[in-house]
Specification:
The chain has seven helices and eight strands. An eight-stranded mixed β-sheet has the order 1-4-3-2-5-6-8-7, sandwiched between helices. The mean pLDDT is 96. It binds S-adenosylmethionine (SAM).
């Protein structure tokens, strides 16, 4: 680990808006935030540009930016402090254990941004959009909640669409080229670090919204 990364890793433990595997907050998230309001998650947030942008756009929503890497989370946490945001937290945890952290039907919406594709078949279980996890996300979501995903990876997107179909989820919004589509709005035009990189290389960005089947 570089010295700068080590510094951010150490700082993560000291910041009030950062949480290390907070299993004790299951069912109590509304007590951790200053205001009890709808809770949104970003899974695999990296440096959390999207979550910080969303928390700024929507002060009447709470956000948790989630990742395994504390040095990356620390970058977002610093940004949130600089902007005076109290409606966002930064959580280091393994998303594969998500059910241990949240009660069923307690989440208003989930973002999954540029998840690692894990292209080898033997790593399928690590993909954040494999169907066991998608099924779990929809148990944690409220009945009108949704999962929004952005990815540069054609193979992972085809996999995700197939997994969603097997679960009978509605793929009501999908475009293989968000930045040349009618779906580009204030929220999904906020760019993550990986998105900036892929756009510079002229890579198309897939965008998908999943909802419970039958939901409008
Ligand atoms: C390709 S990066 C994308 C980062 C960010 N979303 C972006 O678009 O710039 C994927 C991120 O997912 C995180 N990640 C992968 N698997 C995870 C898991 N099981 N639990 C928590 N974070 C995970 C990685 O640490 C990494 O920061």
């Amino acid at each position: 680990m570089t010295r700068v990364k080590q510094h951010r890793h150490d700082k993560f433990r000291l910041l009030d808006n950062c949480l290390e595997q907070p299993l004790y907050l299951k069912g109590k998230w509304n007590q951790w935030f200053p205001t009890d309001q709808p809770l949104y998650l970003e899974l695999g947030c990296g440096k959390a540009e999207l979550s910080v942008g969303l928390a700024t756009l929507f002060p009447q929503r709470n956000f948790l930016a989630i990742d395994l890497k504390s040095d990356r989370l620390c970058r977002g946490a610093d940004q949130a402090i600089a902007k005076g945001l109290s409606n966002i937290g930064f959580v280091r945890m393994d998303i594969l254990d998500i059910a241990a952290y949240f009660e069923p039907q307690s989440i208003a919406g989930i973002w999954i941004t540029f998840p690692d594709p894990y292209p080898r078949d033997r790593d399928e279980k690590k993909r954040l959009t494999q169907k066991t996890l998608l099924n779990l996300y929809f148990q944690l979501l409220q009945s009108d909640g949704d999962v929004r995903m952005k990815s540069d990876n054609d193979g992972l997107m085809a996999f995700t669409l197939a997994e969603a179909q097997q679960l009978n989820l509605s793929t009501d919004i999908y475009t293989p080229d968000l930045h040349n589509s009618a779906y580009l709005d204030e929220q999904n035009s906020l760019l993550t670090r990986f998105e900036q990189k892929f756009l510079k290389g002229n890579k198309n960005i897939h965008y998908l919204r999943l909802t419970h089947a039958g939901q409008l």
